[in-house]
């Protein structure tokens, strides 16, 4: 992977992860690095799901693919936040 591709993945992961945090109500105690990593994974899984559903390549903005990515990021952030909350209460 080239440095430009890595930078793009980090930037896109931060955006998707941040949007995923925005769709979850309340405050999440998840680090910025974890949010970016969740965003990168959610972007990859969302693109794969959109490809399977046949909506990955549409004219204009791929709103369904973006919704899948943000939704998956929200799930990932929620899982991490719940995991860290459980560790605090032990």
UniProtKB/TrEMBL annotation:
Primary location group: membrane
Topology class, membrane: Multi-pass membrane protein
Alphabetized UniProt keyword annotations: Cell membrane, Membrane, Transmembrane, Transmembrane helix
Transmembrane intervals: 6-24, 31-57, 63-81
Compartments (UniProt record): Cell membrane
Keyword Flavoprotein found: no
Family stated for the protein in its record: Belongs to the UPF0410 family.
Protein name according to UniProt: GlsB/YeaQ/YmgE family stress response membrane protein
Organism field: Lentzea sokolovensis
Lineage: Bacteria, Bacillati, Actinomycetota, Actinomycetes, Pseudonocardiales
